[in-house]
Amino acid sequence: MFCSKCGANVPEGVAFCSACGQPLPSTSVVPPMPPGSTAPPPTGAASQYPAAYVPPAQAAWQTSARPPVAYAGFWLRFVAFIIDAIVLHFVFTIVTLPFIASMGIRGIMRGPMPMSPEEWMPLLRGLFHIFLIRTVLNWLYYALLESSVWQATLGKKALGLEVTDLEGRRIRFGRATGRFFAKSISSIILFMGFIMAGFTEKKQALHDMIAGTLVIRKL
Fold first, then answer.
1. 161 and 77 in contact (C-beta within 8 Å)?
2. Where are the alpha helices (DSSP H) in the chain?
3. Which residues of 189-207 are buried (b: 16+ CB within 10 A; e: fewer)?
C-alpha cells in the first residue's frame, strides 16, 4: 500500500503515513458474529452487515412450518352438517312462524284441499316465500361464518374444522358464497359431489374443487 501524498510504502491497516502523516483510507471489514449471537451488535456495527442478513432466530421463525393439520373427510363433515342442520332448523322455525301465521298457510293446510288454480295460488306463493327465506338464511349462515375469523360454521367449529383456500388462508365472503351455491351442483348429481370428500386426495367435495377451498382439521 502506498501513500497518496508522498508515495511511501506503508503497511496495510495503518491509519497514517509514517513519512508525511497523511491520513490513509481504511478498509471496511465485516466483523465476525459472536458465537451464539442472534442479532448484529447494537453498537453501530449493524450497518456493516449485508442487507440480506437475517438473525438465526428470525430465520428459524420464518421457515417454521404451519401448525400440523389434516384434511377433514366425509364422515367428520357429515356430522358437522347434522349439527348445522339442527341449528338452522331451530332458527328457521323461529324466523318463519310469523310469516306462516300472516299468510294463513296453516289454515289452508288444515282446511279442505284447494281444488281450483285460484285456491292453490296463495299456498304456492306462501311456500315460495318460505323457500326463499330458508335459502337466504342458509346462505348467510354458511357464507358469513365460513368467511369469519372462525372460518367455520357452528357444526364445523364443534369438531375443530376450518374452511380455507388452497394455501390454508381465510376465505372471503364472495368465495364462501360461491362455495355455498356450488353445493347445488354436488346435490343434483345424486349427492356424489359430497361423497367425493371421502376419496379425493385432499378430501375435497365437488363444491370445494369449484370454489378452490379445503376443509381442514387441526391436530
1. yes
2. 56-63, 74-103, 105-110, 117-146, 154-158, 173-188, 192-195, 206-211
3. eeeebbbbbeebeebbbbb
State if pTM tops 0.70: no
- CA–CA separation, 9 vs 211, rounded Å? 74
Which residue, 175, 187, 188, is CA-closest to 214? Answer: 175
Residue 104, by phi and psi: left (phi above 0), alpha (psi -120 to 50) or beta?
A: left
How long a stretch of residues is the chain? Answer: 219
C-alpha cell at 85: 342442520
Contact (CB, 8 A) for 25 and 17: no
Task: List, for residues 73-87, the tens digit of each pLDDT value.
Answer: 999 999 999 999 999
pLDDT tens, residue by residue, 172-186 = 999 999 999 999 999
- H or E segment at 214? strand 213-218
Residue pair 73/198 in contact by the 8 Å Cβ criterion = yes
Which H or E element spans position 70?
Answer: strand 69-71
CB 21 within 8 A of CB 8: no
Query: Could you count the other beta carbons within 10 Å of the beta carbon of residue 111?
Result: 9
Averaged confidence pLDDT in the chain: 77
Phi, psi of 9 (to 5 degrees): -85, 120
Show Cβ contacts of residue 140 under 8 Å, excluding neighbours closer than 6 positions: none
160 burial level (CB within 10 Å; 0-12, 13-18, 19+):
middle
